[in-house]
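Two folds, back to back.
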Amino acid sequence: MTKWAAGDIIDQQGRTFVVTGANSGLGAEATKALVRAGANVILACRNVEKGRAVAEPLGERAEVRRLDLADLASIREFSESIDSIDVLVNNAGVMAVPLRRTVDGFEMQIGTNHLGHFALTALLLGKVRDRVVTMSSIMHRIGTIDLDDLNWKHRRYRRWSAYGQSKLANLLFTFELQRRLAASGSKVKALASHPGYAATNLQSNTGTIQGRILSLANPVIAQSARMGALPMLYAATVPDAIGGSYLGPSWMFQTRGYPKVVGSKRKAHDETVARQLWSLSEQLTGVNYNFGG
């Protein structure tokens, strides 16, 4: 896995990927790499115009469809438009935004980053042939799952704690999804990745002075979005990548570098919390998983 890069992606001709949030940053870079490798990519974007700006130079194998992960109706509509895919890449996300709520009343970060992708994966799972890859973050380490107040209705809202909770939820979801897939006898795999500290538009959209500082510091201390996309691309394309793996950068405490399998906090592997979060997520979204059998 040493110095694995986008040029090492094996031929993806005949394979179809859905990449959420593909209109910018990591999603855009992943989309470009996948199309160069021969894949067909559906760019699932809230901002369709920005998605088209990414897709048009890539030709007919890149297609834009609207998806707003902060709206369960949009998720259902998008899912109904999909026939079958090889890989679902749950990449889209928001980071450390002021308190806002989704169309369905969820706190925006847990609603978009976790609940939106949870619902999308449930609705598409029967159409996925190979694997589901979900983007987490180093910041899962500061997260705590509050099952009694997942949507910050009673606690004082703290935007970074909310972000950490959503990224921890991404890992709990991935590991639990892999356990359930394996138990059902499915050949579909679930993996997670994180980009380290990569320069994307997330830092500039926090609405805070910290966000402005991070945005200014990006050219100096952050790795490129192209490098940040590598763990996700590895998880999505390497044939022998193991289900339940977590991929991240290999250098400087996972902040930068080429992809490798990395560790996560013990709380990301709490199976009791994972089951409880799964049940709560089904209840909140009204979407239930079907593993066949």
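---
second:
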Amino acid sequence: MSWLPLSFGAPMVLWGLLALPVIWWLLRFTPPKPQTEVFPPLKILARVLKREETPQQSPWWLTLLRLLMAALIVTALAEPVFNPRERLPAEGAALALVIDNDWATAADWGQRVATAERLITDAGSNDVPVIIAFTAEKPNAEIGPFDAATALDRLRAAKPRPIPTDRPAVYARVAATLETLPGASIA
């Protein structure tokens, strides 16, 4: 956990902040004074119109404002994300995942797998074993506990199946396995 809940989708873009001194130098640089050409009709206009004077340099606050706008643009291009995903507090004895993989889950199967992968990865970083059970598998399929790498392999090998499921039997098997591992967390 960091002290600031902010992360970036494209952190390499933040290297663009190193260009701020170059932008500051360019803002201070002024083009040379234009040469005046004598053209008789313009002499009449010059007496009528008030001359507009431009300063030699821009004011410090305007330069600072321009640099701040450039820094904000670079930061916005880095795709900031406020409050990124928190890690799974895997303090228990194991992580139990029951994943429904019957035919009706085919539409959002990718989201289910992505969520389960994040949970398994978080459990693996804490050296917590994973119990993973699928509802449309054979009743005698092994459900664990597995290490994170094996659980990820089993998850990636699973797919939605067009067979009837027996969810109460799967829940009973997971509950029986969890009794051997006290303090396990269920997702």
